[in-house]
Amino acid sequence: MKIEGCCALVTGASAGIGREFARQLAGRAAMIVLVARRRQRLDELRDELTRHDPNLNVHVRVVDLADKLQIYALVEWLEREKIAIDLLINNAGLGDLGLFATSDPERIERIILVNMLAPTLLTRRLLPPMIAKKRGAILNVSSSAGFLPIAEFSVYAASKAYLTSFSEGLRAELRSTGVSICALCPGPVDTEFNQVAQRPTEAPERNSPKFVHVSAEEVARAGLAAIERDRALVIPGLVMKLAMFLVRITPMPVLRLASRLSAKRS
After folding, report:
1. Does the predicted model carry a pTM greater than 0.70?
2. Are strands 57-62 and 87-90 parallel, antiparallel or unpaired?
3. Edge-to-edge strands of the sheet including 233-234?
4. Could you give phi then psi for residue 209, rounded to 5 degrees?
5. Mean pLDDT for the stretch of residues 126-136
6. Choosing from 14, 143, 156, 162, which is the catalytic residue?
7. How many Cα atoms sit within 13 Å of 81 on the Cβ side?
8. Model pLDDT for residues 84-111, shown as the tens digit of each residue
9. What is the pLDDT of residue 161?
10. Active site residue 72
11. Does residue 82 carry a catalytic annotation?
């Protein structure tokens, strides 16, 4: 799919990778719908985008993606305004760093709702019109964490394993429909994600080596390029590509052992 002239919806657009998607779509997309919970940040981003591209049509929608009714209200608004989305970027995501047994049940529920249910519901509602037009693309921002078990990050990793598998299954179904789907699986990215995932009562987060990190700009650029090239899955950054190749060919017993050793060191 060519991004020029598209109508895009980006969830989690108020910061990090989502904000970079919006910035890189400006000048290429005809319309962008920015979705997140923080109105002030969305308004600031809209003003920034329209300042650089006065012809860009930008809509701001404040939505809590952990609330099904708000997701349905978003879709109903799109239908009412006759906005036909042909590029859906399911970017919003939450994490929780720490032992599952001591986790906040409400936070775990929010992770499941935002990381799994929200992209599933949005895809279900926005996919049929794309198929009818034989034009469209869905970019699911998953994570390299979904390729392996991660102690003290188990719910987040499992939610991303779901999103990657969901993307692969849908891609097989959508063959020859004119609609493409891609799973974007970055490793560590320099955003506020880890700070938000960190529990206030826990010890400081364990930082990944800097050489495996990629910028939010690079992740967004890789995701949009993958959509245009009709790629099934993309892992930004040469180091992470190599690391995840090794992970994916490593027997599960070895991954389990590595996960246990990681948990003991924490």
Report:
1. yes
2. unpaired
3. 57-62, 31-36, 7-11, 87-90, 136-141, 179-184, 233-234
4. -55, 140
5. 97
6. 156
7. 14
8. 999 999 999 999 999 999 999 999 999 9
9. 96
10. no
11. no
